[in-house]
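User: I would dearly like some help making sense of a protein record. This is the protein in question:
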Amino acid sequence: MSAKTINTVQDPSKLNAAKDAARQCLLAADKFLKEFQFDLAKQQLEKAKELDPSNVYIFAFQDRIAHFEATRKKEAAAQAAPPVPKAPPKPAPTPAKAATPSPAPPVTTPESPSVTKPSAETAVPPPNPAAEEAKLAEERKRQEAIRLLAESRQKEAVERAAAELQKKRETEALAAAEDQRGRELEARVEAERQKQRELEFRLAVEEERRREEGSRTLEERRRRELEARALAEEQRRRELEARVADEERKRKDLEYRIASEERRQRETEALAAEEQRRRELEIRAAAEDQKRRELEARIAAEEQRRKEMEARMAAEEQRFREEMARREEERRRIEIEARASAEEQRRRELEVRVAEEEKKRKELERRALAEEERRKDIEGKILLEEERRKQFENLAASEERLRKELEGKMREEMRRRQEEVRLSEEMRRKESELRVAEEQRKLEDMRRQVEELTRALEQEKNARQEISRLNLQSPVKQLREALEAVWVNGAPDETAALELHGRAVSLAIPSDVEQSLIREVKLDMYSKAVKEVVSKKKLLRSSSSTLEWLRKVYQVSVAEYLENESKFLLDLVADQYKGTVLFVSKLIGTKEDITTRLKSSGFAVVQATTPENALEKIEKVNPNLILCDTDFPGGLSGIKFLHVLRVNSKFNYIPFVLIGDPNEMAQLKSSELKPNEGVVKQPIDYEELTNMMNEKLAWFREYISSLK
């Protein structure tokens, strides 16, 4: 392919303009050819070759010009040749010229030298060779014209077929160019989408970095607080040592022995109380750390869900693009098949027409005597063919218009698709911005809650420091007892609150210390109330109305609820959860199935109907105990399943309890069972089974603790 052809394929508008100009040159060449102006026709042909070298009409026009030029030269040569002399016909010679020789003298005999006159019976018309020759020449010219007409029609048919093939190739080239532009557009859209994903990834990385910096700052602040606490504890320890030494010296003095003894006792009690508070602070710090980890886990889960949602949206979009591409490909295939069938139909029609013309030519040769009479019919047919040719040209022009309209529709469809893609991208971008704003809002809420918790802890720390600084252990203890007595059934009324405040003022307790004590007592009483409700089985895990009522009774805020309730509920769930049991039994789903009773006892149960099924699940489940029947028809038995697990180092330490028939009990108990293995008989005594499972689980926990 030449560079010019490549450029035209790459620029369809220039390609169409060049082809149209080449067709105009070919039409002008055809006009000059009919007027026998061969030089002008050749000039137009050269222009068409420069504009569109791939047009097959050019080579057909070259052959036509050469043929018509040779025919014209032959006719000119025939006209320039000397004419054949013609003798005028004479019906009979005159007497004066009887001796003059004539083209056809009368017949004479030796007996009669005189001229004999032909009789009416024996007279023959004289022959006319010039007329016969003229007739033959005219017949040859007529046959030559018929042959030239047939050849020209055949060439026109070939040219029309070549033109149709060229149009088909041009259409395919345009379709390929449109497909290329579509792929380029899709590539640009994909690039824009990739840029958006990279931007979202950078935003996520920046947010993660900011969260990590915040967590590092929080950890650093907590570390400094712990170091400060350790230094304060060390300072208090040194002070206590100094006080102990002072007491040791004062104890030698008999006058201050009793006072010193009482003072030492109070200091010892204060030290114990301080140690108790320090332990409580460590427990609360551990709870705060647990809450922080849970918060980070929630944030990571939300981020994971967001990424999964984006992945699903990308997959849906990819499937939509593939479906649209498949439909577009199917449409193009159907159009190409329709065009091919139409081209085949046209070719068959042309072949039928050529066959008909050949039959007509043979009919003309057989009926040469009636040629003059049918000449008018032939001219009429020639005019009809010319009309058909014009109709075909009009049809070609209409097809060209339809093609241009189709290209316009395709461009409009492409613009519409681009607009749809742009709108969908805009909608996805807005949805992404909304999701990011929602995530930021959630993060701000969490950050605000963390700040509230931090302020509360800071307030408690300041209160404890104030208590230590002012030596208010005994007044604080008295106020705490009074607060617990009042807050036991909920928040006190205004009178009781005023009495408590007056007592705190009388005990010289600062207001911030008083507020810290009220908060601690409130949360302690609320926790006891919740545990009491749970112990009486009045609270379900999914119920929030009871907790909401208790929060209103004890006036617990949302921040205080998040600070204490989450840890309490996690501890509650941990107390109720006893472990995961892999239950392997052929009786699953029957009345003898004990799955329901195991679940009601706090076990998570994973069921398997055969040991083979259990082997597939055991690694995914990682159970705390395996409960298995002994007899399974047509496969591994329970004992063989136990031996399979024994030889596997990953599962040989898991507690294993066999359920066997009474006849098998003696044999099973006499076998060498390991400490983590046991047997129970059928029908199952649930109390015996529970005791056996608790025993094996206790061994399992001790074994895990020894590994740690």
